[in-house]
Queue: 2 jobs
Job 1
Amino acid sequence: MLLGLKRRFLLHLLRDPAYRFLFDPPPQGESVSIDCETTGLNTRTDDIVTVAAVKIRGNRILTSERFEAMVKPRAKLNPDAIKVHRLREQDVAGGRPIEEVLPDLLRFIGSRPLVGFYLEFDVAMLNKHVRRLIGIDLPNAQIEVSGTYYERKYGDAPPGVEIDLRFMSILRDLGLPALDQHDAYSDALMTVMMHLTLEDYRARGVRIPRGRPRPIAFYGG
């Protein structure tokens, strides 16, 4: 009920009616995995350098329906960020302004739920620009992969159990392949694989500490 009221309030505040599609019912069984690489970790002062998204339909990863863009950031690249994603000032100088990238990204996402790993950060980085474009934050539902993993592995754990929610730890624990981490598209793709594996576990009532079944098969499209 509260979620519905919030969405109606956001729709009322929407500045540009061309983006009403963000409030449409999402396509049945579809979601979008999204990832951003940034100039640093400060959501107020840092900015996006690359953004990638890939659609999910049922248990299929639609690799043929992907979005990738390099963005020319307004903020300077933090040296620590360069060590992570290996993108230098000269690499991103030819990127498109976020004002050009964002409309294309929003049309790609549509009203689908967003899937991510520590998604709150990526959405916060995007919302700085989304607010300027349409007057509101992204209204899409959000699915946090680390939260699903926590529930499957630690939800019934006794007090004092050490908790590890690192990206690569989750990937290894689920028996999934490691791609080129800190590339936006690769991170979005690995996040999809974790998400679908965890959804399969949840659907079958499987808890991770009780044994890890073979990961389900994924199909490109």
Note: The chain has one domain: 21-208.
Job 2
Amino acid sequence: MPMPSRLGRYAVRRRIGSGGFATVWLAYDEQLDSPVAVKVLADNWTEDQAVRQRFLEEGRFLRKVESPYVVSVYDAGELEDGRPYLVMSYADQGTLADRLEVLALTSGQALEVVRQVGAGLQALHVRGVLHRDVKPANVLFRTVEEGGRTEVRAMVADLGLGKALDMSSRLTMIAGTPSFVAPEQAQGEPLDPRADQYSLAALTYLMLCGRAPYSHASLAAAAAPGAPPALSTPDRDFPPEVDAVVRRGLAPDREDRWPDVAAYVEALAAALGPDADAGPSGPWLPLDPELTQPGARPSPLPPSRPLAEPVPPRRTRRRVLGAVAGLLALAVGLGIGYAVEQRRDAEISITDDTGTLSVTVPSDWDRARSPRMWQAPDGGGEFPALSVGTTADWTDVATTAQGVFLGILPGDELPEQVPQHPECDGADEPVDDTIDDNATRTVVYTRCPGGVTVERIVQLASNRLLWVQVRSADRATATAVLDDVEAHGY
């Protein structure tokens, strides 16, 4: 949407960010002389009562909590065109995701983030609210004046997936960020606060050792996570007590975790010891103008199914290229000049553990790979899969990371609809094609956070489909990766 001059009584300064469900604007409260963040429901969702209700519930959940470690909602309203909006705290020091992109946190800084985020989650739980999507992008930092000096405060944000505990005990939508979501949440089971504790433990692991405990490509993979690697790395060594605390927080069975978030935070602080405490002088997290973001990045609701998509099988590279012809025609029709681009010299070919699936990608994509089997949606069973990306959370709809996911699943016909991507602002018409009697369906989503997302599904055999998703900065790279996907044995 174009930048409005005002949203309600708030003067708009600039856009902070946007996703598939909302746009967030930096605005100014002239009456109170203060900057605020105004989150407005996207106009294409105004008539969808379920999405509208979820948007308003976020505001209600946040208003239930009086905590300095939870983003505050100051006001709510409705624009003339019927779109609701929420007026919230403005986070002038960006997100934890921003910080981790440019510097590693010390043990003391990580512990302080855990303490403050834990305090925010505990406040939500006391008020009967689950967050359900604790991850780096949903931890915001803002500056506050405390005791005559400037401090940086961490706040829990974005309750787009939040649920009242009484509702979560009866009905749970399967959603969340795969690398941080609790197994019971990925399985669609009733939830309690230990699901948020699991996500906080995954966040702890990331901050302490510089990598996430898991690089799940889908919620199906998150449903059966297995044991994470050891917390210690050659660069950062931690006592066994610290590893034990975090592993208990990451226990697949919630009954084996800590009783609550407060108990987990207390145990972590004791295991790290006094040397990990943040120093008494100056902000525990330094103010850095280069790091400062204009506000919180909205995190749209992820799709209910794992991100992925099918692709052409058992064809040589030349034959598979024909499957892209429809995409080429569409691109030319849009005036994009969609020529086959010269592939980068640095490429790498990767095969899954079973030898069924392989793909060639730019070498810088091979930073996080998972060649293991996956659980097909709707309890369809375990099948070969392969995920490769520039980061472990490349499937997160809010990131600009790139990657490809391949997964075989049961099916005797193409689905009516490929996975949707509301985080993208545009989508081409679906392209149905037949290559050597193999039916395919492809959709290209455009103006996505990282560029383009291509969803494709192919009928491999009478009872097998291949599902492929590619996220890339440009169409040419996405097409080249699709061209280099192979399924063996079909």
Note: Residues 371 and 386 are 5 Å apart (CA to CA).
